[in-house]
Design goal:
87 residues, mainly alpha, 78% helix
Length: 87
């Protein structure tokens, strides 16, 4: 494994992890007021395009990072829809 690939996997861990505190907080507080649909939409597009870039370039770290990120964002979107009527 090359050093560049190690940095790619390190980026994967941090790239996916930065959204987990928001998922945790949203799930426990049931509050989604402060989560913007615009931000979620851009995040989905960003992850999708980087996933495709990684797929076309055969980059496993990019594929994994953005595949996992798409999953985490979809959980956040699900929570936003589920708790949309909570105060």
């Amino acid at each position: 494994m090359e050093i560049a690939e190690l940095f790619g996997y390190a980026g994967m861990v941090t790239g996916v992890s930065f959204m987990l505190p928001q998922v945790y907080k949203t799930y426990h507080t049931k509050s989604v007021e402060d989560i913007s649909w615009g931000m979620l939409s851009l995040l989905v597009l960003n992850c999708f395009f980087w996933f495709l870039y990684g797929f076309l370039g055969d980059s496993v770290p990019l594929i994994l990072t953005n595949g996992l990120s798409l999953f985490v964002v979809s959980v956040l979107i699900t929570l936003k829809i589920r708790y949309r009527n909570n105060p």
